[in-house]
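// run 5 | inverse folding | seed 20
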């Protein structure tokens, strides 16, 4: 049996985590000016290098805006953020996402999966079906919600790769952490078997080269998770 090494977060990471919590909790509001680097370093007992690196990190995520000769201000991360911002929101919420972000992410997934199916179903080869079957077999072997979520993601990502669209797989993979988190929660709430059944039926439509059937089934499954009988993070 082999254990992974335990690594402590760096001082910069601890600074970023503290400031992100203050912003996401509303303690710091959009437009607020944060103290100068020297003052922050003195208050927190760290070097200015740590503060400078942390501010640069948070600016890249869209949490802060650096205004030359004026200071550093809290930015509206919904306008200036990136995928890294979404991951920070997840971490703030204990690895989950708030309801609004869940709905938005699933709606985006629906649009991308429909695009993928439009491209992959009419053109998939027999070899492609074999590869997709392997991904489905991996999913069917899953026994826990986290394993099923990873399998569900791998199945969908394989479809993206087989679509021939060069951007879809990259875009899909960039959303892996939040998407796997959603499917893990879905499997925990409604059962691993249901997640498997969704993919089995979609595979059958793809194998039959039934574009409309695959799209209709995919929309139905995702719509149930958005605002139907199997919503994510809503009251059961």
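// decoded
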């Amino acid at each position: 049996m082999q254990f992974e090494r335990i690594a402590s977060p760096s001082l910069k990471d601890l600074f970023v985590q503290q400031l992100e919590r203050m912003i996401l909790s509303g303690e710091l509001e959009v437009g607020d000016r944060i103290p100068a680097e020297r003052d922050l370093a003195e208050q927190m007992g760290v070097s200015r290098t740590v503060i400078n690196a942390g501010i640069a990190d948070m600016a890249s995520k869209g949490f802060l805006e650096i205004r030359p000769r004026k200071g550093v201000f809290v930015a509206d991360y919904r306008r200036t953020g990136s995928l890294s911002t979404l991951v920070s929101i997840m971490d703030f919420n204990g690895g989950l996402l708030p309801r609004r972000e869940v709905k938005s992410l699933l709606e985006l997934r629906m649009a991308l999966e429909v695009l993928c199916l439009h491209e992959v179903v009419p053109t998939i080869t027999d070899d492609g079906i074999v590869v997709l079957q392997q991904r489905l077999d991996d999913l069917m072997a899953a026994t826990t919600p986290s394993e099923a979520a990873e399998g569900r993601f791998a199945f969908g990502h394989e479809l993206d790769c087989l679509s021939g669209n060069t951007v879809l797989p990259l875009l899909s993979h960039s959303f892996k952490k939040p998407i796997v988190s959603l499917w893990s929660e879905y499997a925990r709430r409604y059962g691993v078997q249901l997640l498997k059944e969704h993919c089995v039926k979609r595979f059958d439509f793809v194998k039959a080269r039934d574009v409309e059937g695959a799209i209709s089934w995919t929309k139905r499954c995702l719509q149930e998770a958005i605002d139907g009988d199997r919503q994510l993070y809503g009251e059961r």
